[in-house]
From TrEMBL:
<dbReference type="InterPro" id="IPR000994">
    <property type="entry name" value="Pept_M24"/>
</dbReference>
<keyword id="KW-0378">Hydrolase</keyword>
<dbReference type="InterPro" id="IPR001714">
    <property type="entry name" value="Pept_M24_MAP"/>
</dbReference>
<dbReference type="InterPro" id="IPR001131">
    <property type="entry name" value="Peptidase_M24B_aminopep-P_CS"/>
</dbReference>
<dbReference type="InterPro" id="IPR029149">
    <property type="entry name" value="Creatin/AminoP/Spt16_N"/>
</dbReference>
<dbReference type="InterPro" id="IPR000587">
    <property type="entry name" value="Creatinase_N"/>
</dbReference>
<dbReference type="InterPro" id="IPR050659">
    <property type="entry name" value="Peptidase_M24B"/>
</dbReference>
<dbReference type="InterPro" id="IPR036005">
    <property type="entry name" value="Creatinase/aminopeptidase-like"/>
</dbReference>
<dbReference type="Pfam" id="PF01321">
    <property type="entry name" value="Creatinase_N"/>
</dbReference>
<keyword id="KW-0464">Manganese</keyword>
<protein>
    <submittedName>
        <fullName>Metallopeptidase</fullName>
    </submittedName>
</protein>
<feature type="domain" description="Peptidase M24">
    <location>
        <begin position="146"/>
        <end position="348"/>
    </location>
</feature>
<dbReference type="GO" id="GO:0008235">
    <property type="term" value="F:metalloexopeptidase activity"/>
</dbReference>
<feature type="domain" description="Creatinase N-terminal">
    <location>
        <begin position="8"/>
        <end position="138"/>
    </location>
</feature>
<comment type="similarity">
    <text>Belongs to the peptidase M24B family.</text>
</comment>
<dbReference type="Pfam" id="PF00557">
    <property type="entry name" value="Peptidase_M24"/>
</dbReference>
<keyword id="KW-0479">Metal-binding</keyword>
Length: 365
């Protein structure tokens, strides 16, 4: 049994639980090492205090599960078989009387909840989310090796994007060049839909790339991430094409100052709220507070958005091993949109910046 699964098993025992049923694919991957996108099909991991755990997946993926390193029991089911009945039989074989069951309450839908209650005779349900978040927030050395490589590839993707900036090129043309080169580099998936936004579009924090063309005097904003062996990176850079106004420059320098201050403040024992406010107050003091409408950052790992959440009200204290983004932005309609984002690893003494692409204002001539 791997270390992560051992820790969860110990939690089940010390919490007086009889079992845990994990169904979110990210958490199944975290605990089992098996990465799968089952679509509408059931993917699950049943964990018991003393009995052998069970991995449940579509039958066509059972060999993939074995290759991933899973050595426990696998229930593989076809599209005409009922996986819930298979789970019930496997639990019965273990002679486990489940009265208190941990589930992911935020993930399990009503239909599947009814199945769970049928199998386990309406047990007491306990939320597993808090424990899983606690485990996933602190990364292992193996996880960090994967995240570092994902960050290296993200830096390369930004480099490609910047090299593609030319007057008259559309956002989608630049985006396509980035993702084509990523595929050539062996990247199977991006962390999320790549964003290339220019001109007025850059002032929309979650804008959609389209046919807008690059023109002189505009910012070009890149927000992208790469998945490497199941782990995500997330980076944002904003560059200028041609000369920009003093107002645009002020906005850029304010965002950069806020980001650098938040990175410097990142160290064990500091709260997420304090990190957020370190950046937010710099932006507020410059008069742009209303144009920074989102949190400062979010945890990063198997999911591109996970815990911790860096908001100005989150009292959670940073710990060594946490990985998160710092991404302040200022979005002034019809003036400028600037965001700068890095991936941060908390060490015993401070912050290690995992994304390396330069942040000094870059003006493409």
């Amino acid at each position: 049994m791997n270390t992560k699964l051992t820790v969860l098993t110990q939690w089940i025992q010390t919490s007086g639980l009889d079992a845990a049923l994990i169904t979110a694919p990210d958490n199944v991957f975290y605990l089992s090492g098996f990465l799968s996108d089952p679509h509408e099909r059931l993917l699950a991991l049943a964990v018991f205090p003393k009995a052998e755990p069970i991995l449940v997946c579509p039958k066509m993926e059972t060999e993939d599960a074995k290759r991933s390193g899973w050595t426990g029991e696998i229930i593989g089911y076809t599209d005409i078989e009922d996986p819930w009945e298979e789970i019930k039989q496997a639990v019965d074989r273990r002679s486990v009387n489940v009265k208190r069951l941990a589930i992911e309450k935020e993930h399990l839908n009503v239909e599947r909840l009814e199945k769970v209650q049928m199998i386990f005779s309406v047990p007491e349900l306990v939320a597993a989310e808090e424990k899983l978040r606690e485990l996933r927030m602190v990364k292992t050395e193996d996880e960090m090796a994967k995240i570092r490589e994902a960050c290296r590839l993200a830096d390369y993707a930004i480099e490609i994007g910047v090299s593609e900036i030319k007057e008259g090129k559309t956002e989608m043309e630049i985006l396509a060049a980035i993702e084509y080169e990523m595929k050539k580099a062996g990247v199977q998936d991006m962390s999320f839909s790549t964003m290339v936004l220019t001109g007025a579009n850059a002032a929309s924090p979650h804008g959609t790339p389209g046919s807008t063309k690059v023109k002189r005097g505009d910012f070009v904003l890149f927000d992208l991430g790469v998945v490497y062996e199941g782990y995500c990176s997330d980076i944002t850079r904003t560059v200028a094409y041609g000369d920009i106004s003093d107002k645009q420059r002020e906005i850029y320098e304010t965002v950069l100052k806020a980001e650098e201050a938040a990175i410097a403040a990142s160290k064990p024992g500091v709260s997420c709220a304090e990190i957020d406010l370190t950046a937010r107050n710099i932006i507020r003091d410059k008069g742009y507070g209303e144009y920074f409408p989102h949190r400062l950052g979010h945890g990063l790992g198997i999911s591109v958005h996970e815990f911790p959440s860096l908001t100005e009200t989150n009292p959670l204290l940073l710990k060594p091993g946490m990985v998160y983004t710092i991404e302040p932005g200022i979005y002034v309609p019809n003036v400028a949109g600037v965001r700068i984002e890095d991936d941060i690893y908390v060490t015993e003494t401070g912050a290690e910046v995992l994304t390396k692409y330069p942040k000094t204002l870059q003006i493409i001539k």
